Amino acid sequence: MKTIPQYNWSGSFHYGFRDWHVPASIEALQELVAKAPRIKVLGSRHSFNGIADGEVGLSLSALPLDLEVAADGRSVTIAAHATYGQLAQLLAEKGLALHNLASLPHISIAGAIATATHGSGRRQGNLATAVAGLEILQADGQLLRFRRGEPDFEGAVVHLGALGILTRVTLETEPAYSVAQSVYEGLSWQRIFSDFDAIMDTGYSVSIFTDWDDLGGRIWVKRRVPAGDFPDEIAGARRVQGKRHVLTGLDPANTTEQEGLPGLWSDRLPHFKMGFLPSSGEEIQSEFHIPRQHGVAAIEALAGIRAEFAHLAYTSEFRTVAADLLWLSPQFEQDTVSIHFTWHRRPQEVAEAVRRVEAALSPFVPRPHWGKVFTEGRFEALYPKLPAFRALRERLDPQGKFFNAWLERHILDA
């Protein structure tokens, strides 16, 4: 038994684990799982709710990463508990890359896939869409493998930790590429509303940040190299000289390089560098995925009530993500505009602010990020494949070994 990690990455969520294990081999893991009545795995602890909570907890950090590269170089297989930062270092040695990365390279592959965590880009799917194969440890300690194209694969990828323990994952790769990014400031609310689509087309991965004040926002544009020179102006916003943090006023030392300087894909697609504390540290996060056609109207609705929540938000980020066919992905059969909130760590006040945000967004049928803070979720209406997922879970884990109170509330009682 090891020291039990009591809090998530930002200190905003307290876990309830009473026992904690760190198996050093797959065999030891299989034995633990087969004997436990209920058990959960905790990865990089970047969730902001109880999705990974439980009584008996596991860390897979002692298992080897064991990277395997396909003979054609078009995919790699690695232990699922690896972080994207660790994977990127290994891929660099092979001259390979992924199609996308999230803002933080610190997060585990398994957790990102389970919750359909995403990067940005109108034509890029979330991180789970790179999955070509899964190895899941079942309740009886046996390993089950899913491959793309097989029955239930699209239901098993975004699994919320409810189907078993993801031990290894196969991801599609491509030749390594370079990316450059530049930041633009002085984007007015009027231009956000009128030019949103055009702004999102200015790069491979584009984000708009706002503090919800009268000034509007700023644009972070990431372009694959070569992609031509960055313009001096986008939608009235001027290109910045010098480096910026995504949170106004913070030291930008931990953010990835800007000013149009090219670098390896893994050193530019995230907003934050590996090895540094990302974002503000002490925070709460929420995120809502809106059907693309309603994205601008949803942002306008929030701007109209920003006085009700702006004092609690460090910043918000607007991004776009492409549609997919993964059953519980927020992008299931729809392109989305993602509206992210980085909140001050004031839980009670943030909970009320989230309720007001959800009320303003309700006409636009938002799907909340599975790993972040939300209060409502009409998941039966939001996810047409939810009944099929429940049936898959019942078949793979009829005793509910991998369930917890959060999953019971949001999946069984949705």
TrEMBL record:
<dbReference type="Pfam" id="PF01565">
    <property type="entry name" value="FAD_binding_4"/>
</dbReference>
<dbReference type="InterPro" id="IPR006094">
    <property type="entry name" value="Oxid_FAD_bind_N"/>
</dbReference>
<keyword id="KW-0274">FAD</keyword>
<dbReference type="InterPro" id="IPR016171">
    <property type="entry name" value="Vanillyl_alc_oxidase_C-sub2"/>
</dbReference>
<dbReference type="InterPro" id="IPR010031">
    <property type="entry name" value="FAD_lactone_oxidase-like"/>
</dbReference>
<dbReference type="InterPro" id="IPR016169">
    <property type="entry name" value="FAD-bd_PCMH_sub2"/>
</dbReference>
<dbReference type="InterPro" id="IPR016166">
    <property type="entry name" value="FAD-bd_PCMH"/>
</dbReference>
<feature type="domain" description="FAD-binding PCMH-type">
    <location>
        <begin position="13"/>
        <end position="176"/>
    </location>
</feature>
<keyword id="KW-0560">Oxidoreductase</keyword>
<protein>
    <submittedName>
        <fullName>Dehydrogenase</fullName>
    </submittedName>
</protein>
<dbReference type="GO" id="GO:0071949">
    <property type="term" value="F:FAD binding"/>
</dbReference>
<dbReference type="GO" id="GO:0016020">
    <property type="term" value="C:membrane"/>
</dbReference>
<dbReference type="InterPro" id="IPR036318">
    <property type="entry name" value="FAD-bd_PCMH-like_sf"/>
</dbReference>
<dbReference type="GO" id="GO:0003885">
    <property type="term" value="F:D-arabinono-1,4-lactone oxidase activity"/>
</dbReference>
<keyword id="KW-0285">Flavoprotein</keyword>
<dbReference type="InterPro" id="IPR016167">
    <property type="entry name" value="FAD-bd_PCMH_sub1"/>
</dbReference>
<dbReference type="GO" id="GO:0080049">
    <property type="term" value="F:L-gulono-1,4-lactone dehydrogenase activity"/>
</dbReference>
<dbReference type="Pfam" id="PF04030">
    <property type="entry name" value="ALO"/>
</dbReference>
<dbReference type="InterPro" id="IPR007173">
    <property type="entry name" value="ALO_C"/>
</dbReference>
